[in-house]
Each structure stands twice: as structure tokens, then as C-alpha cells.
Amino acid sequence: MEIAPIPGLADDVNDIRLRTAKIVNDKIIPAEPALFKGGKAAEPARAEIKEHVKEQGLWAPHLPEEYGGMGVGFLAHAYMNEVMAWSPFSARLFGVVAPNSGNQKVLLKYGTEEQKKKWLEPLITGEMESCFSMTEPDNAGSDPRSIQTRAVREGDNWVINGHKWYTSNARRADFAIVMCRTQREKAEPGKSDDTMVQIIVPMDSPGLEIIRSVPVWGHTHGDHCEITYTDVRVPVENALGRVGSGHVAAQDRLGAGRVFHCMNSIGAMWRAFDMMVTRAMSREVHGGTLESKQFVQGFIADSYMDIQAARLMTINCARVMDEGGDARTDISAIKVFVPAAFERVVDRAIQVHGALGVSGDTPLAGMYTGARTLRLADGPDEVHRILIAKNVFKHYKAGGSWDFGT
């Protein structure tokens, strides 16, 4: 990976980007064979790289300095992500791995001082792990307001009953942040009696049962778990924020997460492109290298255009968010465009690599399934297309038009 300073970008952001690239190039990618093995074989490399990241002041870009993070803005974090994503192992080694990172941000914004002390601080130091329990097997994930897991207030406790799945990291987690339906504290005219609340639930709570790890793309030993909550009791003070803020908190988390997923996708695309070009120049076939074949030249050109378009769209969206603007339409646009571009780029890279491309000897197979999954995760393409159209029509019906320059 060759990284040069970006003209016009702030010096501190360029510096972060360059130092991140050096660690990924010099430390993480060379350690990938050991990291892929996992377990004890990976522990020495993990420990050494994490320590080096902290020494370089690049640990936890999503957190403020008072909580041990970098305290950088949204745009700087986005630029950092595209470089980290050259390796699938970087996020954890830089202290910004989901779902812990998203839970940390939610606890920072909505948690009480007591909650921060009890749950956030140990989560940051690594003494605890966490999971986010929102998706349900019997309700459409594209409509979070259809959630049926219910929390009922009984005295000083919440009593939770429900059924979740795709609760990532559940087997390692010490606590879950659970999205629940509950009754409003005060009736509001014209609104349903029900509203949403997020509740912190320790994983050892009686009535919480991990049913299984849901197989994903044929992998049966993952950590995306199916969970039932049967009369699970937790103190009322475990509610995150006020009752009724659950949906907003989830959207806060998902909006930022969508941008970071897209920057991660761009970094992975970038590596797939690099691998594809290198392979095309070195692979001999039918009297010449692959680079001499027009089909392959077309793959290179199309992938270049996909990456440039995806990257510029995502950086513009991150800029709008960093400046506090309304980025809802841009978020939906990149959420549709970038994973689809990612899928196309990786598909071409696999084709150029032939049988090697679908093997476990390169990261391409993992990239491909990850790209396809992203077209569903954090909202399916179809929902985001509807949101884009609604927002555009709203502007025109108000007598305006769409300004593509802002």
C-alpha cells in the first residue's frame, strides 16, 4: 500500500493517515498468517501490535482523550478507516472493533456517570466485552419499530421477554445492550402508547439463554448468536437514556457506523484492486500476461472507476457529518452504492486470480462475502433507496430543487 499526503487535507489528518498506513504495512499485513490462525498462535503478534499502536497515539480513534482515545473528529476517523481496512485484523488492533466501539459511543452519549463507571470504563480497558441485541428472527430488520421484545416496569426492575438473533459477540460478552419495546411514561397525543428503550443486560442474568451461533455463509462456529430473554430482570437504572430515546440512539449508532463500514469497504476494495493489478502483470496465460488481455484491462478500468466514485461519495458524506450538516440522504446513498461497488471490485479480483481467488489463501473470499452481507446489514438497499427518493421529493414539494454542490 502506497500512501502519500492528500493535498488540501489538514496536516494532522495526513499525519494520522500516513502513520496508520505504516503500521498496517509494516506490522499487520506481515503478521496476517499468524493472525488468521487465531488462538495462542496469534497472541504474541496481537500484543506487540496493540502496544505499538498505543505508543504511536493511534488507539481508539472513536473515543475522546479523557477515555483513552485519540479525540479526533469524524472526518479524520473516516480517513483512518480506509487505510486500516487493508487488513481485516486492523480494527481490533487499533481498539475500534464492533460491536464494542458502537456500544462505547452509545454509553458515552446516553449513559449516566454511574453507567459509564460500571460498564463503559471496563469495556474500554478490555476488562469487559459487549454485544448489541436488536435484530429479531420474526420481525423485519428493515423496520426497527416492529421489534417485539418487550420490557415491562415492575417496581425497581425491568422485566424483559423476547427473542433476538444476529447478536454479534454474544459468547464473549459480559453485557448486552438490548433494544426493547415498552410503554411510554406519559401518553402523547397522536402517538402510540409504545416506544423504544435500550437496556443494559448482564449476560449472566437468569432467563437469558444463548440458543446457538447462527451459521453465516456456511460458517457454523461464528459468534452471531440467537438469544431468548425469558422474564429477565434488571434494575430500572440499567435503561440507557430516557424511555423513548431507544430508536434515536440506535440511529445515532447506525448512521455513523454506515459511514465507517463504507470507508472500511473502500480500504478493502483498494487492496483487492492492488492484488488484481499485481496478479494481472505476473500471471502468464495463452501466450502473454493477463494484463495484455482486453477483458482484464476492462476489469482494471471498471474497478478504478468504482473505487474513485465510492471513495469520493463517502468522503463527502463524512465531511457533511463532521460539519454538523444533514447527511441522511448521503448516508443512504453510500450505503447502497459502496457495498455494491465493493462486491463488483472483489468479484473481478477473484476472476483474475482464478481458483486462488476462491481459496482461503487470499483475503478475497472473505471480502466477497463481507461485501454481499453489507447490502443487508444496517438496512437493506431497498429501504435506503426509498429514503433517498422521499428526501428528494420532500425538497421539490417544498418548492426547491436538489443542490448537488453542498
Give the key terms.
Butyryl-Coa Dehydrogenase, subunit A, domain 1; alpha+beta; 16% strand; 4-stranded mixed sheet; Butyryl-CoA Dehydrogenase, subunit A, domain 3; 11 helices; 4-stranded antiparallel sheet; Butyryl-CoA Dehydrogenase, subunit A, domain 2; 3 domains; 50% helix; 406 residues
Summarize the structure in words:
The protein is α+β, with helices and mostly antiparallel strands and 406 residues long. It folds into 3 domains: 11-102, Acyl-CoA dehydrogenase/oxidase, N-terminal domain (Butyryl-Coa Dehydrogenase, subunit A, domain 1); 130-240, Beta Barrel (Butyryl-CoA Dehydrogenase, subunit A, domain 2), CATH 2.40.110; 248-397, Butyryl-CoA Dehydrogenase, subunit A, domain 3, CATH 1.20.140.10. It is built from 11 helices and 10 strands. The chain has a 4-stranded mixed sheet, covered by helices on one side. It has a 4-stranded antiparallel sheet with strand order 2-3-7-6, with no helix packed on it. Strands 9-10 form a two-stranded antiparallel sheet. A hairpin with a 2-residue loop joins strand 9 and strand 10. The protein starts with 10 loop residues before the first helix and ends in a 9-residue tail after the last helix. The mean pLDDT is 93.
Mean pLDDT: 93
Task: Compute the number of helices.
Answer: 11
Number of strands: 10
CATH names the topology of the largest domain as Butyryl-CoA Dehydrogenase, subunit A, domain 3
Question: How much helical structure, as a percent, in the residues?
Answer: 40-55%
Q: Profile the largest sheet.
A: 4 strands, mixed
Our Rg estimate from Cα atoms comes to 22 Å
> What strand order characterises the main sheet?
1-4-5-8
CATH architecture of the largest domain: Up-down Bundle
Spatial shape:
globular
Count of domains: 3
N-to-C terminal Cα separation, in Å? 32 Å
Uncertain parts: none
Q: Kindly estimate the percentage of residues that lie in beta strands according to DSSP.
A: 15-25%
Structural class, by secondary structure, is alpha+beta
